[in-house]
Amino acid sequence: MPKPRPLRIGMLGMGTVGTGVAVLLQNSAHILSHRAGRELQLVKVLVKNPSKTRDTPIHGFKLASSVEDITRDPDIDVVVEVVGGTGWAFDAMAQALANGKDVVTANKAVLATRGGELFDFARSHGRCVAFEASVGGGIPIIGAIQRGLSANRILGIQGILNGTCNYILTRMTDDHLDYPTALKGAQDLGFAEADPTLDVNGTDAAHKLAVLAHLAMDTTLGVDSISRRGIDELDPLDIRFAGELGYTIRLLAEIWCDPDGIISHVSPVLLRKTTPLAQVRGGFNAVRVIGDAVGETLFYGAGAGRMPTASAVVSDLVELASSRDGFMAATSRLWRDSPSPPLLPQDKLRSRYYLRLHVLDRPGVMAEVSGVLASHSISIASVIQHETIDQPNISQVQMVIMTHLAPAGKFLDAVRSLDSLGCVLAKAVHYPVGE
Asked: At what angle do helices 236-244 and 163-174 cross, to 10 degrees?
């Protein structure tokens, strides 16, 4: 029997993830070729700075002079895109597909914002787009939803999908740091970018949630339709109070399906300390998936970093090398212009809530607050009041309320009414309380 032709790979980018991909292809060549049924050969790479000294010795490939040097090379079978962004990267992938090459990408932003364009383009040219590395780093959540859980109707997903935020929240909780100090520590260790905005404001998690929502619930979520709150305004006071109540705060990306439609959001959420998601620490990610047949499942692992993300990229390459036809069949239905379940407005979300009010310490304040909540049909589960902070001619106190289950719309109406009370000295702070 003749030896199978190698899968020849061109790669766009040799940063953190690209270097990891090259290292895996070089150092694990024997086992990868055994699993794929043929060799995986990295033949050409486009780098931003050809003279840059790499911290890992890698060899065996040529440096490309331009993106076209890879996308139009007839000897290349698949193009790996690990550059990021939604402009240049999309154009490069489209070029590769048009020239008869499959694409492997870690680019969740392109999938979330231009997935329909990309997959339409791939279908029109009979090519594949593989994207296991786009969500969860080394966690095989894409394959799990597409194949392992394909017998299920997915009822809900809760995910800690951003390792930067999880690292910052862990340091704020365990080491009692304020947000700027915890962020600086994350940047010093390489967990956070110099400009961390897309991570800390919830946009990165929203991109990943949009990808999971499409796979799990056949819905195309515009990123702007996902309600987002980040961690950049989180006060250590709320982390401390949450802890006293038996909760930990984590940035959760959630989507839930009910008979009327689906609802999604990204927000800091209070989770019972004993729940699995509350115990996800540092730069790790976790995804809880609820199926109608399997029940609850939990996927946990490194959510970012050179080798975990490279692991997912190379896994896609192995699958393309060994069973491209099956992969093509499994992914050809994705991001089609087909009917989606209706998106429910955020005020239809039902949750328990944590509510902190900075109020005057005087008789009758509790009655005023509880009266406002009652007028909006918000039931109080518990109240705690912390020590008085004395200032000239005035006494103030932090009042923390945990509510029973309530519709988000009614709760937010109640918050607006509370903010207008004369006894409330600052805007109310509130977060949902998870299961």
From this structure: 70
Domain count, the chain: 3
Are 285 and 161 in the same domain? yes
Task: List the CATH number of the domain containing 72.
Answer: 3.40.50.720
* DSSP single-letter state for residue 128: -
Residue 52 pLDDT greater than 80, yes or no: no
CA separation for the pair 308, 21 (Å, rounded): 10
The CA distance from 397 to 361, in Å, is 6
Of the residues 208, 273, 348, 427, only one is catalytic, namely 208
**What element of type H or E holds 313?**
helix 306-331
CA distance 14 to 16: 7
Range of the structural domain that residue 297 is part of: 141-302
Q: How far apart are the first and last CA of the chain?
A: 57
Structure tokens that stand for 10 in this block: 């061109």
Structure-block tokens of residue 313: 């990229």
- The whole-angstrom separation of Cα 205 and Cα 134 is 11
pLDDT in tens, 270-286: 999 999 999 999 999 99
Rounded CA-CA distance 178/235 in Å is 8
208 catalytically annotated: yes
Domain-embedded: residue 203: yes
